[in-house]
Amino acid sequence: MKAYLFLLITAVIFSGNIIVGKAINDLPPYTIAFFRVFIALLVVLPIGWRQAKQYRPVFQEEWKPLLGLTLTGVAFFNSFIYASLQFTSSTNVAIMESAIPVVTIIFSMLFLKEKLFGVQCLGVILSVGGAIWVITEGSWQVIRDLAFNIGDIIMIAAVLTWVAYSILVKFHMMKFPIYGSLLVMLAAANVVLLPIASIEWIIGGFPAVFQLNHSLGLLYLGIFPSVIALILWNKGVEEVGPSQASVFLNLLPVFTIIGSLLFLGEKITIIQVLGALVVISGVLLTTKTKKGRAAKKDSCRKKVTTVLACTLGKFCLLKDQSISKTTTSAIGLGGKSSFSNSLV
């Protein structure tokens, strides 16, 4: 239950990432990404330094998976999202992002041998369908008129990047301390993103990152999505696996609409409300069925164990009684034989 709460909070924080990212979208994409991880590095440094120093041999030995986690989840996922928004519509980006659970499930079934039951598959379909319904406001015209361009291709890269990150978390994240590994990954992400952001500054000049709205937006991105959400997401994936965890990403459109209503003054339609309910229903089906099925299996195991124990107990009792009768009979025969011998 705690893992699902972590994943729910992560979805809320990520929806804030979309809203804030849209508000400061006049900044270059890799500039946003760089200052985001730079601020996160400053936040994590005091609490992660001791772990990073203590587990240095582990980081050196497991540098390949650590580098993979850095490049996928910390450096390039959001960089790809910000870059794609320079070329394609937010509708295209949101619909493609809602495909992450499906792609994650496919990759998890192929590489992690995870299994989903029938009702769980239905939950995935409902959540994805509800997310698309919310984004398109129930208009088939919007879906039909989507056209792929370089931004869509970049967004496909973002989807695959997050899927790879979730699978790497499942395989390798338990090897590393939480804060120490996050500090190392953030430091490496800064090294990777700085040269790319510098190219943006050389071409277009240094952006106005110190304007109040830009600074506040970057502070949010650096603290909440980059640190808090990442820690909660990793804990959730470790508990329930990448397939079920990724379904919570379908709640992003729902929370984004609510945030847009509260902070941007946008209106909500009945179609969006219905789509949100479908998304939530799909998430509940996907997350609860496995637990319920496991409980039923445990119940069945307990019943079978009880029946076997009772049967074995009765068998042992009957066997003991049989042995007792045989022994008594033998003693009786032995007594008669002794009495006869004494007479002789």
TrEMBL record:
It is a multi-pass membrane protein. InterPro entries: AA-Vitamin_Transporters, EamA_dom, EmrE-like. GO terms for cellular component: plasma membrane. The chain crosses the membrane at residues 31-49, 69-87, 93-112, 117-135, 147-168, 180-203, 215-233, 245-264, 270-287. Residues 2-135, 150-287 form the EamA domain. Pfam families: EamA. It is found in: Cell membrane. Keywords: Cell membrane, Membrane, Transmembrane, Transmembrane helix. Belongs to the EamA transporter family. This is Permease of the drug/metabolite transporter (DMT) superfamily.
